[in-house]
Amino acid sequence: MTDRINVSFTVNDAYAKYLATAITSILENAHEDDDLYFYIITSDLSLESKRKIETLKTIKNFSIEYITLSSDDIPAIPENNNAHVTQETNFRLRIASLKPDLDKILCLDCDLVVVSSLSKLYNIELNDYWAACAIDAPNYGGCNNEFILKADLKQYFNTGVCLINLKAWRKNKVEEKIFDCLHKYSSILRYPDQDLLNLALNEHVLELNHQWNVFVGCLDLFYPLDIQKFILQNPRIIHWAGREKPWKYPTVALSDYFWKYARQTPFYEEILFNNLTQKILPQSIVQEKISYTDDYLLTKLKYAKCKLLSKFTFGTKRSLYRQRKKELKKQLKLIKHKYKEQEKQKES
Fold first, then answer.
1. 110 and 97 in contact (C-beta within 8 Å)?
2. Considering its fold, how many domains does the chain have in total?
3. For all residues of the chain together, what is the average pLDDT?
4. Within a domain: 276
């Protein structure tokens, strides 16, 4: 008897090479009887990228379906505060209606690798839970506290690895809840797709062990020592959820796992070439942590809004927006200074 495992990714053509790396890692570590079905939700995946992905069947056979959407197929969602997160990520919010014939699906980000069979994760009994996710690692640094408080959440989860009970989603109209939350909470969203899932799924999420979503960004700053030690010894899914991707920062933690699978894809030379020709600026761990904090994110969004309006308004309004922009810029500097001082105190 074969065990069917439904896996979904959302991707644009620029990320096809990292999608291929993630798929390769899944295939390499699959059990012989794992029957893998991939659903790729995309806006622009090229025929050439699809051809290259097909070649991965030499590792292990799989089924694949491409679902093409455009930004018009979902309500207007604010841009993510992280530049590396594209609008295509929001397509997964419609997964229950896109695949009405499926009862369960595992939604994965592309910036990860799987280092064990997915069967154990996929076969977790969800019962009445609507999804299963691991707690977002920045929670341990207090980085989501303000959002949790404002949104009245019991917990905040990282949805880059999200096992979804599609049957329960349809029964409880979760997709409708997601877009209701978009209207209700649009002013406080930081990572819209993840924030919306947390809002709509509140109190209906089964907590996964951290080994199923090892958040690599600032590994030693977020996780308590006991959790950090366990997941480094027993990783199942390694997720470079922060800005420091292994293809840009080869020395980032656990990057050897990424390169092991990237080398086996037909995109390997392209990954090397694209990132060797880019100018990569060094980024400190402290700066990475600051970028996740709620006060910095919200202030940055307000600053961007005032900066824009100061260019397109006139007279008194323009003067007010310019003044407010200066004030917010100072606040951003103060926040950075505060967190850097905190890290210095921890080190001393």
1. no
2. 2
3. 86
4. no
